[in-house]
Design a protein that fits this description.
The structure is a single chain. The protein is mostly helical. Helix content is about 80%, strand content about 0%. It has one domain (about 5-160). The protein has helices spanning about 5-15, 15-25, 30-55, 65-90, 95-100, 100-125, 135-160. Helix 6 (about 100-125) runs antiparallel to helix 7 (about 135-160). The chain is elongated, with a radius of gyration of 18 Å. It starts with a helix and ends with a helix. It binds protoporphyrin IX containing FE. Protoporphyrin IX containing FE binds near residues 37 and 79.
Length: about 160
């Protein structure tokens, strides 16, 4: 989606002093991208550990609640970092991302996977045994989660090629 209002908004961000500063200091974008990628590594490794447990492939000597309690916070703490670094990249080159179909797809997938993760984690707060005996549902959640996170990575990389 590329409306005139969106492109005008991108131009107005582009004209700000902050955007001009990001654009003029050459090392800022690669440095911020490096932090973005490190945060992606933290999220994806934690997501993988949780989902392998949900699929019954790894960590089966620990309860679902314990694995989620161990790796979940890494996901939640990495997201603000991804938001901050992502926002910096956007301010530095607004039209490249905001008006890019793959960026918009990535944000849609991100909101979807956050909703799915909340749906999975919320019941564990009040009842750590909530998912016991619901291995079918856990498998569906794990497969959906892996597809959505992989889609986010794919869309994130594609931004550069559209
Ligand atoms: C939280 C909000 C996020 C925002 C606002 C955001 C924004 C951005 C932006 C602007 C870029 C640069 C694209 C380009 O110019 O080529 C980018 C790259 C990327 N993002 Fe995000 N992002 C966010 C979260 C995430 C998450 C959660 C993931 C995956 C776990 C992710 C994965 C990627 C990948 C794989 C790239 C490509 C990196 C590269 O090729 O250097 N992003 N993101």
């Amino acid at each position: 989606m590329k409306t005139k209002a969106l492109l005008d908004f991108c131009d107005s961000i582009d004209a700000t002093a902050l955007s001009q500063t990001i654009q003029s200091i050459k090392w800022v974008v690669p440095a911020v991208q490096t932090v973005h990628i490190l945060a992606i590594a933290a999220v994806m490794s934690s997501i993988l550990m949780i989902n392998l447990r949900l699929l019954g492939i790894a960590g089966t000597d620990q309860t679902v609640a314990r694995v989620a309690g161990r790796f979940g916070p890494v996901v939640w703490w990495s997201l603000p970092l991804l938001l901050l670094t992502g926002a910096t990249l956007i301010i530095g080159e607004p039209a490249r991302s905001l008006a890019n179909d793959f960026f918009q797809l990535k944000m849609f997938l991100l909101v979807s996977v956050i909703a799915l993760t909340v749906y999975f984690q919320r019941p564990l707060k009040t009842n750590p045994n909530f998912w016991d005996g619901r291995s079918g549902a856990l498998r569906v959640i794990a497969v959906l989660s892996l597809i959505l996170w992989s889609g986010i990575i794919f869309a994130g990389r594609w931004i550069a090629y559209l």
